[in-house]
Design goal:
Blueprint lengths: L28 H16 L5 E7 L5 E7 L2 E3 L2 E3 L7 H8 L2 E8 L4 E8 L5 H10 L2 H9 L6
Antiparallel strand pairs: 1-2, 1-5, 3-4, 5-6
The structure holds flavin mononucleotide.
Flavin mononucleotide binds next to strand 2 and helix 2.
Length: about 150
């Protein structure tokens, strides 16, 4: 398929949301995340929890998709997914990933990289059982969020 190159270089945005200075940041990155995440929740409500999860297959080919942050603490950041999904299979082989939050109105991104571990099965079951029935059925039908 041939298409003329679409030139987007004239689209510009003036970034006026303030500076990022090391001395203004919390020394604990988890605490800093909490401050920024609460700002994002104020603006975006639940949409603030959308994050890009990047994984790679055995050949190093990357893939990325949106998942929703469901829990976080100083131990890590959790989401729910199906182990049988592509990301689930990739993480079995290569349990390393990057999470990326982007909150446009804050002109802010947060990148989190590290090892990925399965949560205890009880945590997944507890999450699944508190979801509304329609959501549980749709998750089961689409092979999503069953852990
Ligand atoms: C707003 C939004 C939220 C999503 N949240 C999740 C999620 O929490 N968990 C999940 O497994 N997939 C979620 N998805 C679907 C994934 O982006 C992805 O399409 C699906 O999990 C299959 O990914 P994979 O084939 O790379 O494993 C979400 C998609 C969107 C657009």
């Amino acid at each position: 398929m041939s298409q003329d190159k679409v030139d987007l270089t004239s689209l510009r945005r003036e970034y006026v949301v303030g500076d990022l200075n090391l001395e203004d940041l919390n020394t604990d990155p988890f605490d800093q995340f909490g401050i920024w995440f609460n700002h994002a929740l104020d603006i975006y409500s639940d949409e603030a929890t959308a994050m890009t999860l990047a994984t790679a297959d055995a050949e190093g080919m990357p893939s990325a998709r949106i998942v929703l942050l469901k829990q976080y603490d100083k131990e890590g950041f959790s989401w729910f997914t199906d182990y049988r999904s592509e990301k689930g299979q990739q993480l079995l082989i290569n349990p390393q990933a990057e999470l990326l939050f982007y909150w446009p109105q804050l002109a802010r991104q947060v990148r989190i990289r590290g090892q990925v571990e399965k949560l205890a099965p009880e945590e997944g079951k507890a999450y699944f059982s508190q979801r509304p029935i329609g959501s549980r059925l749709s998750a089961a039908a689409s092979c999503q969020s069953i852990r």
